[in-house]
Amino acid sequence: MTPVLRAAANVLVHVPDLVRYGSKCFREIAAQGDSFSRALSKRLRQFDEAVAYPPNQAFIGNIAPERLREVLLPWHAHPAGGASARGAFGEILGQETFYALLAAADLFGLTMFERPLGAEGASLAVPLMESAVPPKASGREDILRLVESGEALPLYRGDALIGCARRDHETDEALGARILLENLAAKASGAYVLRHLLEGAGTAPDELEYVISCSEEAVGDRYNRGGGNLAKAIAEMAGCVNAAGTDIKSFCAAPVVALIHGAALIQAGVVRNVAIVGGGSLAKLGMKAHRHIEKEMPVLEDVLGSVAFLLGTGDGDGPRVNLEIAGRHAAGQPSTPQGLAEALVRDPLARAGRRICDIDKYAVELHDPGVTLPAGAGDVPRTNYRTLAALAVMAGEIGRENIDSFVEERGMPGFAPTQGHIPAGVPYLGHALAGMRRGDLRSTMVVAKGSLFLGRMSQHSDGASVVIET
Amino acid sequence: MFKGKKVIALGERDGVPGPAIAECIEAAGGEVVFQKTECFV
Fold first, then answer.
1. pTM, rounded to two decimals
2. Quick check: is A163 in a domain?
3. Is A409 part of any domain?
């Protein structure tokens, strides 16, 4: 069986009032109290501003990433005209809808809301998700009691307390309120993007056979921190009753590792279709908010990103995932940018008798530079594209003077929220699929890296890559 | 130039990782008292 890419979906969820529960902001509020909280509130965006932010329009498929080159920096000061929350292969959800989704994802009474969600009219409806039944209202006294005792985190709409998210064990940190809220956020956003994917592909939820989650959350309890299988919980919520699932972890490289594993399951004949899903990372909201506040700009990390893509068997219904050109980074190889690029790009192409310039487009980590540059974290995709161009120079494929044109031709500006695994090349899949169906694009290589050293078990990075081509 | 010097090496994943900096410093006669790699995205 030849594995093919059948569909891709990208969803953003604008959650300004959850930014306070991102790891950085949570720690800053604990250290600085109200002063940081107030400064943060002043810099949060409205929903319409998040929708019109040009990279967000690229993320959901309304503009090609390359078009961002025509938009003046800073991008947040140049909103896209005629922007829509519905995209060619995705959507931007608002916070109220997401609260309803969180409640729908919650099977253990972990969230409480003072009013039934959805009580204020159609704007609170949860499209696509029949199971998102508005929860019963909870008493304000109960919510206040749990918040004041420290058992629950308050949930806000602007300044107004509207509910809470509680812990589910007195002493188990893995079942603490913040961890459970993170896990629920990944599950809810993952299930939603999965439904989007299936809708776009014309595949009924009960036709799906396997789900791989590449989300970053460590779902489990004190005896099984990171025990996992968020994939099955996502499949259950999305109504994929015939799908089994599992998780693949490798920090930010996981989506591409999952893509390779999913394609291998199909090529081996184990299943006929696989959906790979990455839910949003609550911990990474507002990761650079302190820098954005210092620069008196909006806090741009106010969206959860989620991605999903569907692999099927080769029936002419999409480009091939070519497992003969899959890159991996071995434990004995150097974790330098050059070492990773050689292992992930040069070597797998060489094994298949291809050159670096044989690939039309590279989808590297696509972090939005509008977020990272003002925070002093550089332009991640540009750095990675220049490394690939340098490899092409070393291989004698291009001259040194052609580095910039290589970057322009085979690269693209970053357009994904800084949500760790979400920018890992895969947000481009929707664009690639559209380009291949139009006949504008023949091949793309998706390349992702993961920072294993952050977990203190190895000094290594990891990485994975694979070619998708017509 | 690093002989007899104590060095803190801070690396970055998309730039030069900490262990690579540490190796260079040690080869140049310096003493690395702390090295770490960070990921800024």
1. 0.95
2. no
3. yes
Number of domains composing chain B: 1
Domain of A444, in residue numbers: 321-469
Domain, as residue range, for B15? 6-38
- State yes or no: ipTM above 0.85: no
Residue at B31 is within a domain? yes
Tell me the mean pLDDT in the region A133-145. Answer: 82
Q: Which of A336, A365, A372 sits opposite B17 (nearest CB)?
A: A336
Cβ-nearest to A418 among B15, B16, B41? B41
Contact with chain B for residue A335, Cβ under 8 A: yes
Instruction: For residue A433, tell me if it sits in a domain.
Output: yes
Q: Is residue B11 part of a domain?
A: yes
Question: Does residue A274 sit within a domain?
Answer: no
Closest CA to A366 of A96, A97, A102, A56: A56
**Local confidence band at A129 (pLDDT 50, 70, 90 cut-offs):** low
Within a domain: residue B18?
yes
Residue B1 lies in a domain: no
Chain A nearest-CA distance from B37, in A, is 7
Q: What pLDDT, on a 0 to 100 scale, did the predictor assign at position A268?
A: 97
Question: Is B40 close to A372, i.e. CB distance below 8 A?
Answer: yes
pLDDT of residue A87: 95
Report the CATH number that the domain containing residue A433 is assigned in CATH.
3.40.47
Using a CB-CB cut-off of 8 Å, the residues of chain B touching A372 are 40-41
pLDDT digits (tens, 9 = 90+) for A166-178: 999 999 999 999 9
| A66-100 pLDDT tens trace | 999 999 999 999 999 999 999 999 999 999 889 98
Output the pLDDT for position A128: 54
Domain count, chain A: 1
